[in-house]
Specification:
The N and C termini lie far apart (about 100 Å). Helix content is about 40%, strand content about 30%. It has two domains: about 60 residues, no CATH class; about 110 residues, Tetrahydropterin Synthase, Chain A (2-Layer Sandwich), CATH 3.30.479. The chain is α+β, with helices and mostly antiparallel strands. Strands 6, 7, 8, 9 and 10 form a five-stranded antiparallel beta sheet that branches. A three-stranded antiparallel beta sheet has the order 3-2-5, with helices on one face. Strands 1-4 form a two-stranded antiparallel sheet.
Length: about 180
Amino acid sequence: MTTTLLLIVLAVIVIMMFSMIAFISKMYQKVPQGQAIIRSGMGGNIVSFSGMIAAPVIHQTEKIDISIKKIQVLCTGQNAILCKDHIMANMEVNFFVRINPDEMSVTKVAQSIGTKKTFDESAIQDLFESQFTTAVRDTALQFTFNEIYRNQDDFRHKALASLGTDLNGFVLDDCGILQLSKSN
């Protein structure tokens, strides 16, 4: 009788342990590379870059894309850029932005544009296009066409410097001139 009771108690304990392990593993949410997860609710906002436990009803989780995004600035034809020597230039410049992988930057971006928009490259393009176009135009006014053509690195550094590095939680990584020609 005692052996049977002991076996029943042991079986109940084993079943409860497996149930707890299954329940906890169901609540654990992993994060793929290039993303972060934000948990809000009880305990405040918490950002993780690997994974976390989120209890249903108590917590809400959202994933945010922190990978590099390309912002294309295309200034051709009617929108050509004026250089210092009054030559109109067709220019295509790509800028590369990402969300800084720290809790403050991720939270700032999530609060300002929302987490879903970080996965949409066209939304990011819309967010920065006018600011980056202005930087390219302002920087081009400091160079002649030939200076831009010969010293693209100088142009690139000045354009990056004019924008700064912190853009409301986003970080400007780099830029590159893809196309440069005189406009008709």
